[in-house]
Amino acid sequence: MRPVGSKYLLEEPLGRGATGTVWRARQREAAGAEAAVAGQPGETVAIKVLKEELAHDPEIVMRFLRERSVLLRLTHPNIVRTRDLVVEGDLLALVMDLVDGPDLHGYLRANGPFTPVAAALLTAQIADALAASHADGVVHRDLKPANVLVAGGRDGEQMHPMLTDFGIARLADSPGLTRTHEFVGTPAYIAPESAEGRPQTSAVDIYGAGILLYELITGRPPFAGNTALEVLHRHLSEEPRRPTTAPEPLWTCIERCLRKRPEERPSAETLAHALRTVAAGIGVHASAAQAEAALGVGALLAPDPQPAPVPNSGGDADPTQVLPSAAGGYDPGAATSVLPSTGAPGPHAGPHADPTQVLPSGSGPANADGATRAMPPVPPGPGGQQGQQPDGEHPWQNQMRAARDRNDQTQVQYLDPSQDPLRRRPQRRPAPQQSPRLQPPQQQPQHQPQQQQQQRQPQQQPYGQQPYPPQQQRGPAPAPYAQQQQQQQPQQPQRQSRRRQQEPQPQRYAPPSPAPEPAPSRREPRSPSPNRTRIPGLGCLKGCLFVVLILFVGAWLVWELTPLQDWVADGKSFWEASKDWITDVKGWISDVGGPS
Ligand SMILES: Nc1ncnc2c1ncn2[C@@H]1O[C@H](COP(=O)(O)OP(=O)(O)OP(=O)(O)O)[C@@H](O)[C@H]1O
């Protein structure tokens, strides 16, 4: 097992995403005061180890530390709690509560679409989580089924969705990673303004909630295509079609969320209320008043008057400029990608964006937005003045060093390379309902079509053995909800995860010393052939020569050892005798016919 910081041990990978790998891990000892949750020795947690390329980028490391307080204080029953942030050497990790359940993407693939009532109630809880985070100035920006973990749901329990990956989009959105004018997100879930590089607000999460709701009731997102470019175009230009399975009030909610103009979308709080009204009014036990309220849900869905802004999220859109570059393979349902933005660089983004713009300071444009408000104050430097380190050190580098010092206390212990969990990949296991996945685009150099090719793969299946309740058996739900859920068959759920293409693993723990445990037996590698030179046709030539030799020897033996020679001689006499015989016959014939 591999230690992360001095407090945690990674046990097994749970899944891999675009920004890192999530591990089941165990707490070695209680975390320090800097953690939001101290935890107990032996406690199981989930740890997201961010990709090395993120961890190597000083800008991202600083952003990681800057976001520390935002992430740690974000608590809500429908948000996966971040317990601690670990900086160890150049390893960055988020310690989270371990959620015992599949993600919504895997659940959906295993169980099929939800009933409208169930989908409305589930999305209402997700909207609750969004409302709480938006109130705190935090916009998720990567809402999708894979980022919703589902706890509960067994033995009649009600499903409990929990939103995860908060702040990850913000981390990955660093100029260090995206370098040029790009955005981080999932094409199927990207809001039009993000696709165009226009400024983003919390309305992007509402758009994501609309897509999610659509996917929950149909099993697929409304805008699909073979390339990211195609999907982006559809988000920008196509109106979603009402699915046959969507009751009118529910469609009203979806349609409002999917408005192209962000300022026409409702707030998360309004959406949650509207969805509960719809769920109560479309069930079979709905009263006349409830049904009427559901039909009038449009009146509830007023546009959000004050959406929370996303800092540095583009501007000055020019869709024609960059859209054609957003081509490439595309996984419609899954992966978070770093995509080229479809807009021109805005005042706070782009290749020349000044990262310090997002640093809290007394004034300036960065301070005007909500997310900046949520950031912790800049600590004073050694000289007591913020941002004025003698060697021009970035004000956040103190924190970075302090965090590293804190975590570098980790004892360096021998780790057999074959046992290093960071070298292992999530296990691929057969899955009953694995959906075929398309290859998403891969990240390309600057100004090129880029996306990260990712592949979902089945992974450890902690739920594979346990019957997860089907949507129609999901426990004490509101009466209409429970009744509506009697049309679908139960299936085994499974967790699914994504794996980026051949992502290199951190290899920091391989000091040579005796192995504490015997390494698992491995197949002996096949020894290479001694004849390493391959001559085309040599085998055939050798075969032919061998056959000729055999024939020659055989013929010689037959000639010498059999009476063939006598037979040949006899054959000559016989031939001559035959000729004499023929001559005699001819003479006889001429004698017979001659005088007469
Ligand atoms: N707190 C957690 N508890 C249990 N499992 C988790 C937790 N967080 C993530 N997982 C599992 O790990 C998988 C991978 O998580 P990750 O967030 O890296 O994936 P992702 O959201 O698909 O990736 P990305 O958004 O970076 O493309 C998830 O699909 C989920 O099954």
Strand order of the largest sheet: 1-2-3-4-6-5
CATH topology of the domain at 104-176 and 183-300, by name, is Transferase(Phosphotransferase), domain 1
CATH architecture of the domain at 104-176 and 183-300: Orthogonal Bundle
Strand-residue proportion: 5-15%
Q: CA-to-CA gap between the ends?
A: 123 Å
Q: Decide which structural class fits the backbone.
A: alpha+beta
What's the total number of strands? 12
Enzyme class: transferase
Keywords: ATP-binding, Kinase, Nucleotide-binding, Serine/threonine-protein kinase, Transferase
Biased composition (Low complexity): 343-353, 444-495
EC number: 2.7.11.1
Describe this structure in words.
There is one protein chain. With 596 residues, this protein is α+β, with helices and mostly antiparallel strands. Among the domains are: 2-27 and 43-97, 2-Layer Sandwich (Phosphorylase Kinase, domain 1); 104-176 and 183-300, Transferase(Phosphotransferase), domain 1, CATH 1.10.510.10. The chain has helices at residues 52-55, 58-73, 104-111, 116-135, 168-172, 175-178, 192-195, 203-218, 228-237, 248-257, 268-282, 288-295, 297-300, 319-322, 370-374, 395-407, 479-484, 538-561, 564-593, and strands at residues 2-4, 8-16, 20-27, 44-50, 82-88, 91-97, 148-152, 159-163, 182-185, 337-340, 454-458, 496-500. The strands form four sheets. Strands 1-2-3-4-6-5 form a six-stranded antiparallel sheet. A hairpin with a 6-residue loop joins strand 7 (148-152) and strand 8 (159-163). The protein is elongated and about 140 Å long. The N and C termini lie far apart (123 Å). The protein binds adenosine-5'-triphosphate. Adenosine-5'-triphosphate is lined by residues 14-15, 17-20, 22, 46, 48, 80, 96-99, 103, 142, 146-147, 149, 164-165, 335-336, 495, 497-498. The site of adenosine-5'-triphosphate has 26 residues, from strand 2, strand 3, strand 4, strand 6 and strand 12.
